[in-house]
Design a protein that fits this description.
The chain is 52% helix and 14% strand. With 338 residues, it is α+β, with helices and mostly antiparallel strands. It folds into two domains: 102 residues, Phosphorylase Kinase, domain 1 (2-Layer Sandwich); 222 residues, Aminoglycoside phosphotransferase (APH), C-terminal lobe (Aminoglycoside 3'-phosphotransferase, Chain: A, domain 2, Alpha-Beta Complex), CATH 3.90.1200.10. The protein has a five-stranded antiparallel β-sheet with strand order 1-2-3-5-4, with helices on both faces. It has a three-stranded antiparallel β-sheet with strand order 6-8-9. The two termini are 34 Å apart. The N terminus is likely disordered.
Length: 338
């Protein structure tokens, strides 16, 4: 989807693309702004014989609450794409160039005809459990590739960025609204902040995953930070739960995808005991459920107060249950949503 263009953007993009060496000076640039993101300006750019996506990080995110974050995260995203491409170039877009001084980078354009958005497919009720399993498998492979690596830990020591983009706006902000749960939520946030296990992408969500010809393609990695991979698993599974409130008719299919993704991920955990990361993920899920209705970035598709109340009450019940397995979480959620 496009939005109205800003006349200044074309000049800025042309200058950046020229500095990247992607176009000649004076080349004609056609830039179509894309909507949907809250943290970046994104354009579909055509210049000369090239077609690409260009992103520029924003200093203040487009949400109702005050939410600022370091613009250096644009470089973090490009770095994550390049690192993952070393392992498997099929699962990320190719980085074409960077203008780090302007916090802009260009990447490969993946046409929607061949790369459908997973979120859109889920919204339409097309919840393919086999694809969800491939997401879980590939995510575990990325975590295994980065686990216990001093070089990756050094290169992605973005603790301040992760705090600004994830821990404060999601967990700590929602903790303020739920004083009785605040100590538990803050302890979870502290555990993630101190963990040094593997590289978190930080935004593993159906809106950031394309269904490519060879499987999932992961986007939007500006929150990447070395820490606890359980955050990525919980972040994605959380969306599969919430979509069951949004479209109750498809809840069973979403839960089937939840189980498929979780099982495939855990089957490919090699850097620690699968039961350990499963327990951390199960502990984190109730907090993320609250975060997506009471944090700074609530999911846009849950608008009815009764649905938000259901998420809150079920999350509180899950906190009380202290489950250590994802199957227990799914069973309780299934019963609560009805």
């Amino acid at each position: 989807m496009s939005v109205e263009p800003n006349p200044d953007d074309k000049d800025m993009l042309a200058a950046s693309l020229s500095r990247m060496g992607l176009i000649a000076d004076g080349a004609r640039v056609t830039a179509t702004p894309l909507s949907g993101g809250i943290s970046c300006d994104v354009w579909h750019v055509k210049a000369a014989d090239r077609e690409m996506i260009v992103k520029r990080a924003l200093p203040r995110l487009r949400v109702a609450a005050e939410w600022k974050a370091p613009v250096e995260r644009a470089a973090t995203e490009a770095d994550w794409f390049r690192l993952v491409a070393e392992f498997d170039p099929r699962i990320v877009p190719e980085v074409l160039g960077e203008d780090r001084a302007q916090h802009v980078f260009a990447m490969e354009y993946l046409p929607p005809e061949t790369h459908k958005l997973w979120k859109a497919e889920l919204a339409a009720g097309r919840a393919d459990a086999d694809f969800a399993a491939r997401v879980g498998e590939r995510l575990a492979h990325i975590h295994a590739f980065t686990a216990n690596r001093e070089d990756v830990m050094h290169d992605f020591a973005h603790d301040a960025q992760f705090h600004a983009l994830r821990l404060e706006p999601y967990l700590l902000h929602s903790a303020k609204k739920h004083p009785a749960l605040a100590p538990r939520i803050r302890a979870l946030a502290d555990g993630i902040a101190k963990a040094r296990i593997a590289l978190m992408q930080g935004d593993i969500s159906p809106k950031n995953i394309l269904i490519g010809p060879e499987g999932p393609v992961f986007l939007d990695a500006e929150t990447a930070c070395y820490g606890d991979p359980a955050f990525d698993l919980a972040f994605c599974l959380n969306h599969l739960l919430l979509k069951g409130v949004w479209h109750r008719a498809f809840k069973a299919a979403y839960l089937k995808s939840f189980a498929a993704l979780a099982d495939a991920y855990l089957e490919n955990v090699t850097w620690e005991e699968p039961a350990d990361i499963e327990a951390r993920t199960a502990a984190l899920l109730p907090a993320l459920l609250l975060a997506r209705v009471d944090g700074k970035s609530p999911v846009e598709y849950l608008t009815a107060e009764k649905d938000k109340a259901l998420v809150r009450e079920t999350a509180k019940a899950l906190f009380a249950a202290r489950h250590s397995t994802l199957a227990e979480i799914a069973a309780d959620w299934d019963s609560a949503v009805g």
